[in-house]
Amino acid sequence: MSTTLSNQPALSSPRTYDASRLSTRFGLAFAICQLGVMVCMSIFVLPHGGSPHDSALVRGNSVHDADTYYRVGNYVFMISGILLLGFLGAVGTRLRRVDPSGALAGVAVAAGTLVALVWPMAAMLHDVALDTAAAGTDPRILGAWDAVAPYSLAFSALPRLFLVGALVLGMRAVGATPWLTRAGVGILVLSAVGSATLLTGDMFPVLALSTLAFEVWVGAVAFAWLRDRTAPSASEVRR
Protein backbone atom coordinates (compact mmCIF):
# COMPACT_ATOMS: atom_id res chain seq x y z
CA MET A 1 0.00 0.00 0.00
CA SER A 2 1.39 3.38 -0.92
CA THR A 3 0.65 6.68 0.66
CA THR A 4 0.35 9.70 -1.55
CA LEU A 5 0.37 13.34 -0.71
CA SER A 6 -3.31 13.51 -1.51
CA ASN A 7 -3.98 11.30 1.52
CA GLN A 8 -2.22 13.70 3.87
CA PRO A 9 -4.16 16.45 5.65
CA ALA A 10 -3.51 19.88 4.26
CA LEU A 11 -1.20 21.96 6.38
CA SER A 12 -2.94 25.12 7.48
CA SER A 13 -1.00 28.34 7.35
CA PRO A 14 -0.10 29.73 10.75
CA ARG A 15 -2.50 32.35 12.05
CA THR A 16 -0.99 35.76 12.35
CA TYR A 17 -2.10 38.65 14.50
CA ASP A 18 -0.83 42.08 15.31
CA ALA A 19 0.28 41.79 18.93
CA SER A 20 1.21 45.47 19.06
CA ARG A 21 -2.32 46.60 18.15
CA LEU A 22 -3.78 44.15 20.65
CA SER A 23 -1.52 45.61 23.32
CA THR A 24 -2.55 49.13 22.29
CA ARG A 25 -6.19 48.24 22.85
CA PHE A 26 -5.34 47.52 26.48
CA GLY A 27 -4.43 51.20 26.83
CA LEU A 28 -7.86 52.19 25.61
CA ALA A 29 -9.49 49.61 27.88
CA PHE A 30 -7.46 50.88 30.84
CA ALA A 31 -8.62 54.46 30.34
CA ILE A 32 -12.28 53.56 29.84
CA CYS A 33 -12.41 51.11 32.75
CA GLN A 34 -10.53 53.36 35.18
CA LEU A 35 -12.79 56.31 34.45
CA GLY A 36 -15.87 54.11 34.72
CA VAL A 37 -14.74 52.60 38.02
CA MET A 38 -13.95 56.04 39.45
CA VAL A 39 -17.47 57.24 38.60
CA CYS A 40 -19.09 54.10 40.02
CA MET A 41 -17.00 54.24 43.20
CA SER A 42 -17.98 57.89 43.70
CA ILE A 43 -21.68 57.09 43.30
CA PHE A 44 -22.15 53.63 44.84
CA VAL A 45 -19.29 53.04 47.30
CA LEU A 46 -17.60 56.12 48.74
CA PRO A 47 -20.82 57.77 50.04
CA HIS A 48 -21.18 54.82 52.45
CA GLY A 49 -17.90 55.79 54.13
CA GLY A 50 -19.21 59.00 55.64
CA SER A 51 -17.77 62.49 55.40
CA PRO A 52 -14.05 63.27 55.58
CA HIS A 53 -14.94 65.61 58.44
CA ASP A 54 -16.35 62.75 60.53
CA SER A 55 -14.25 61.26 63.30
CA ALA A 56 -12.21 58.12 62.63
CA LEU A 57 -14.65 56.15 64.78
CA VAL A 58 -17.66 57.24 62.73
CA ARG A 59 -15.88 56.63 59.41
CA GLY A 60 -14.64 53.24 60.56
CA ASN A 61 -18.12 52.09 61.57
CA SER A 62 -19.58 53.40 58.30
CA VAL A 63 -17.01 51.57 56.17
CA HIS A 64 -17.44 48.40 58.22
CA ASP A 65 -21.21 48.49 57.66
CA ALA A 66 -20.60 48.81 53.91
CA ASP A 67 -18.03 45.99 53.85
CA THR A 68 -19.47 44.25 50.77
CA TYR A 69 -19.64 47.45 48.74
CA TYR A 70 -16.00 48.22 49.44
CA ARG A 71 -14.79 44.69 48.70
CA VAL A 72 -16.54 44.59 45.33
CA GLY A 73 -15.36 48.11 44.49
CA ASN A 74 -11.78 47.29 45.48
CA TYR A 75 -11.76 44.14 43.35
CA VAL A 76 -13.10 45.87 40.25
CA PHE A 77 -10.66 48.73 40.80
CA MET A 78 -7.70 46.34 40.96
CA ILE A 79 -8.75 44.65 37.72
CA SER A 80 -9.15 47.93 35.83
CA GLY A 81 -5.83 49.28 37.12
CA ILE A 82 -3.84 46.21 36.15
CA LEU A 83 -4.96 46.57 32.51
CA LEU A 84 -2.16 49.10 32.12
CA LEU A 85 0.28 46.18 32.06
CA GLY A 86 -1.17 45.01 28.74
CA PHE A 87 -0.53 48.43 27.21
CA LEU A 88 3.17 48.36 28.09
CA GLY A 89 3.90 45.91 25.26
CA ALA A 90 2.88 48.54 22.71
CA VAL A 91 4.76 51.21 24.65
CA GLY A 92 7.96 49.18 24.50
CA THR A 93 7.54 48.41 20.80
CA ARG A 94 6.91 52.05 19.87
CA LEU A 95 9.79 53.40 21.90
CA ARG A 96 12.26 50.82 20.59
CA ARG A 97 11.41 52.03 17.10
CA VAL A 98 12.30 55.59 18.12
CA ASP A 99 15.28 54.71 20.31
CA PRO A 100 17.08 51.56 19.07
CA SER A 101 19.22 51.52 22.22
CA GLY A 102 16.12 50.45 24.17
CA ALA A 103 16.78 52.96 26.97
CA LEU A 104 13.43 54.76 26.64
CA ALA A 105 11.53 51.50 26.28
CA GLY A 106 13.20 49.99 29.34
CA VAL A 107 12.46 53.01 31.52
CA ALA A 108 8.85 53.27 30.32
CA VAL A 109 8.04 49.58 30.81
CA ALA A 110 9.64 49.47 34.27
CA ALA A 111 7.90 52.67 35.38
CA GLY A 112 4.58 51.59 33.89
CA THR A 113 4.77 48.29 35.76
CA LEU A 114 5.17 50.17 39.03
CA VAL A 115 2.25 52.47 38.22
CA ALA A 116 0.07 49.46 37.38
CA LEU A 117 0.86 47.81 40.72
CA VAL A 118 1.29 50.55 43.33
CA TRP A 119 -2.04 52.34 42.93
CA PRO A 120 -4.27 49.20 42.70
CA MET A 121 -2.36 47.74 45.65
CA ALA A 122 -4.06 50.36 47.82
CA ALA A 123 -7.34 48.49 47.23
CA MET A 124 -5.74 45.22 48.37
CA LEU A 125 -4.39 46.88 51.51
CA HIS A 126 -7.84 48.29 52.21
CA ASP A 127 -9.21 44.74 52.05
CA VAL A 128 -6.70 43.82 54.75
CA ALA A 129 -8.05 46.69 56.85
CA LEU A 130 -11.60 45.40 56.31
CA ASP A 131 -10.53 41.96 57.53
CA THR A 132 -8.88 43.55 60.55
CA ALA A 133 -12.08 45.39 61.43
CA ALA A 134 -14.16 42.23 60.91
CA ALA A 135 -11.92 40.47 63.44
CA GLY A 136 -13.17 42.88 66.10
CA THR A 137 -10.43 45.50 66.30
CA ASP A 138 -11.07 49.17 67.04
CA PRO A 139 -13.05 50.60 64.06
CA ARG A 140 -10.97 53.78 64.32
CA ILE A 141 -8.13 51.81 62.73
CA LEU A 142 -10.31 51.14 59.69
CA GLY A 143 -11.31 54.80 59.57
CA ALA A 144 -7.67 55.88 59.64
CA TRP A 145 -6.86 53.49 56.78
CA ASP A 146 -8.57 55.91 54.40
CA ALA A 147 -5.15 57.52 54.11
CA VAL A 148 -3.73 54.51 52.26
CA ALA A 149 -5.50 55.54 49.04
CA PRO A 150 -4.10 59.09 48.64
CA TYR A 151 -0.65 58.01 49.85
CA SER A 152 -0.49 55.12 47.38
CA LEU A 153 -1.73 57.35 44.59
CA ALA A 154 0.87 59.99 45.46
CA PHE A 155 3.63 57.37 45.45
CA SER A 156 2.47 56.03 42.07
CA ALA A 157 2.79 59.56 40.68
CA LEU A 158 6.57 59.27 40.99
CA PRO A 159 7.07 56.34 38.55
CA ARG A 160 4.32 57.92 36.45
CA LEU A 161 6.75 60.78 35.79
CA PHE A 162 9.19 58.36 34.16
CA LEU A 163 6.48 56.61 32.11
CA VAL A 164 4.97 59.82 30.77
CA GLY A 165 8.40 61.42 30.35
CA ALA A 166 9.65 58.53 28.20
CA LEU A 167 6.52 58.65 26.05
CA VAL A 168 6.77 62.41 25.62
CA LEU A 169 10.40 62.12 24.52
CA GLY A 170 9.47 59.39 22.07
CA MET A 171 6.59 61.39 20.59
CA ARG A 172 8.75 64.50 20.30
CA ALA A 173 11.41 62.50 18.46
CA VAL A 174 8.98 61.52 15.70
CA GLY A 175 7.08 64.81 15.71
CA ALA A 176 3.72 63.06 15.98
CA THR A 177 0.56 64.39 17.64
CA PRO A 178 2.01 67.64 19.07
CA TRP A 179 -1.07 68.24 21.23
CA LEU A 180 -0.56 64.89 22.96
CA THR A 181 3.06 65.81 23.59
CA ARG A 182 2.10 69.15 25.12
CA ALA A 183 -0.60 67.49 27.22
CA GLY A 184 2.01 64.98 28.44
CA VAL A 185 4.25 67.81 29.59
CA GLY A 186 1.33 69.30 31.52
CA ILE A 187 0.67 65.93 33.17
CA LEU A 188 4.33 65.76 34.18
CA VAL A 189 4.04 69.09 35.98
CA LEU A 190 0.76 68.19 37.69
CA SER A 191 2.06 64.77 38.74
CA ALA A 192 5.24 66.23 40.21
CA VAL A 193 3.26 68.77 42.23
CA GLY A 194 0.61 66.21 43.20
CA SER A 195 3.19 63.78 44.55
CA ALA A 196 3.72 66.29 47.35
CA THR A 197 0.53 64.82 48.85
CA LEU A 198 3.02 62.57 50.64
CA LEU A 199 4.01 65.73 52.54
CA THR A 200 0.70 67.56 52.88
CA GLY A 201 -2.90 66.69 52.12
CA ASP A 202 -3.41 70.15 50.62
CA MET A 203 -1.86 68.85 47.39
CA PHE A 204 -4.41 66.06 46.94
CA PRO A 205 -6.69 68.03 44.56
CA VAL A 206 -3.72 68.49 42.23
CA LEU A 207 -2.89 64.80 42.54
CA ALA A 208 -6.47 63.79 41.71
CA LEU A 209 -6.49 66.12 38.69
CA SER A 210 -3.18 64.74 37.43
CA THR A 211 -4.47 61.16 37.79
CA LEU A 212 -7.64 61.93 35.86
CA ALA A 213 -5.60 63.68 33.16
CA PHE A 214 -3.16 60.74 32.97
CA GLU A 215 -5.92 58.19 32.45
CA VAL A 216 -7.57 60.28 29.72
CA TRP A 217 -4.14 60.89 28.14
CA VAL A 218 -3.30 57.17 28.04
CA GLY A 219 -6.60 56.53 26.29
CA ALA A 220 -5.90 59.33 23.80
CA VAL A 221 -2.41 57.98 23.09
CA ALA A 222 -3.77 54.47 22.56
CA PHE A 223 -6.50 55.79 20.25
CA ALA A 224 -3.95 57.77 18.22
CA TRP A 225 -1.74 54.70 17.89
CA LEU A 226 -4.66 52.55 16.75
CA ARG A 227 -5.35 55.06 13.98
CA ASP A 228 -1.68 55.14 13.02
CA ARG A 229 -1.04 52.59 10.28
CA THR A 230 2.72 53.20 10.31
CA ALA A 231 3.32 51.02 13.38
CA PRO A 232 6.48 48.91 13.16
CA SER A 233 6.30 45.39 11.81
CA ALA A 234 7.80 42.43 13.62
CA SER A 235 10.81 42.45 11.31
CA GLU A 236 11.43 46.15 12.01
CA VAL A 237 11.32 45.58 15.75
CA ARG A 238 13.82 42.69 15.50
CA ARG A 239 16.21 44.88 13.55
From TrEMBL:
The keyword Plastid does not apply. Keywords: Membrane, Transmembrane, Transmembrane helix. It comes from the Bacteria. The chain crosses the membrane at residues 26-49, 69-91, 103-122, 148-171, 183-200, 206-226. The keyword Zinc-finger does not apply. This is DUF4386 domain-containing protein. It comes from Nocardioides panacihumi.
